[in-house]
Structure formats: C-alpha cells, structure tokens
Specification:
Elements lengths: L2 E5 L6 E5 L8 E4 L2 E4 L7 E4 L2 E5 L7 E2 L5 E5 L5 E5 L8 E4 L41 H6 L6 H5 L24
Parallel strand pairs: 7-10
Antiparallel strand pairs: 1-2, 2-10, 3-9, 4-6, 5-6, 8-9
The structure holds zinc ion.
The site of zinc ion (ZN) has 6 residues, from loops.
Length: 177
Amino acid sequence: MDIYIKETNYHIGKGVFAARNFKKGELVLRVTGEVLPYQTIYSIQIDWGRHLDPDPPAKYLNHSCEPTTGVRSLPNGWPEFVALRDIQKDEEITFDYAMTEYCHYPRSDPGLEFELTCHCPAPGCRGRLGYYSELSQELKDKYKGFFAAYLIRNGRPPGEVNPNPDGRCSQGEKHER
Ligand SMILES: [Zn+2]
C-alpha cells in the first residue's frame, strides 16, 4: 500500500498520507472519478467547464500552500500526482489547489458555499485556498510543470468567443464547511 487515509490534525476532515517513502518525481497517486460540468468541494478541474469528482482516496487530498505533490495531466486531461520533493512515510499528500482550479465558481446552491480560508500548517500559508487566477508570478514559476494542462494551454477563460460554461468567478461565501 502506498497511501492511507486518516483524520488530519489541523482541520476537521480526512487527509491522504504516505504509507511509505517517495522519491522526488515519483508517481504518488492516480485519480478515478466522474466528470461533472460544475465545481464541487472535492472536484479537480481538468478543463474549462469540466470538473473531475474524484473517488477516494483522491477525494481526500487537501490543499497546502507548501504541497508535497504537483499535478501531471494525462492525455485526457485527468491528473495524477507526483512528488515535488522526497516525501517521508506518514507525511500528508497535498497539492496546491491553484494547480488545477482556475477560480472559485459560484455554487448553484448557496448552501454549498464554504469558507475559503486556508488552515494548512505551512509556515508560508497564504491564508486562502489556492486558485490559479489569483496566483502570483513567483508561485507560477515555482510550480512550473505541475499545473493542469488546460491552464497552460490557455491560462485564461475562453472569453466572448467561447464563454466559460462555469460562468464568472466568485469570492465564495463565509460558511462553515
Ligand atoms: Zn495554507
């Protein structure tokens, strides 16, 4: 077994943890799931208007402002997660949500909105979950090679010619998770 799921100690909810040591660059996790036309609390964006609703264990991958893995897109756009550095057994497997999520899209049901504050234990925590459209150039450089392919192909919504089916970005709402 390469990974396991347990409760995290820094926020309420589960996380994915390394069951063994991983070398930098090593494949850590593949993702299975269903593609949805809208973003959810667990989804991973794979294209404009396409969001992968992952099965466990990927469902429990948490955001970190200093992540242990980055994204590598398969030819169909689906992500797999590779070690950004050597990972020790029992370290949490995380990624920066800005590697896949362009922005926070408004939820169809306002009750599904949640707090976007980041509670990750990284010393350099930015205090907010990651979105590509809000990322500094410094972090875009740092994560180069580890973004979802659609963001690199064209790191902006298609615009007037081909409107983003998700609609406009939103700042989220202050709701408890
Ligand atoms: Zn953080």
